[in-house]
Design a protein that fits this description.
Layout: H1 2-22, H2 31-40, H3 45-70
Helix pairs in contact: 1-2, 1-3
């Protein structure tokens, strides 16, 4: 079960990195850092409103599930 959640997290991470690259954002190590950079960038209101919040919420949910299963 845990492996399924980790695979899902990896798919979300790759999606976020791919979308970010389309808008000129480099993907630093650590997905949370990339999300912070995108959300802090004043030039990206469309980028942020269109998908970052939704993917970040899904990613947080998956990470919570991984933490619960890992215990």
């Amino acid at each position: 079960m845990r492996n399924q959640f980790i695979g899902r997290r990896t798919r979300f991470a790759n999606s976020i990195r791919g979308y970010a690259a389309e808008y000129g954002f480099a993907a630093p190590k650590g997905l949370s850092r990339l999300l912070i950079d995108i959300q802090a960038d004043a030039k990206s209101p469309t980028l942020q409103s269109s998908w970052v919040d939704a993917l970040a919420a899904e990613l947080a949910h998956v990470e919570d599930q991984i933490a619960k299963v890992g215990k």
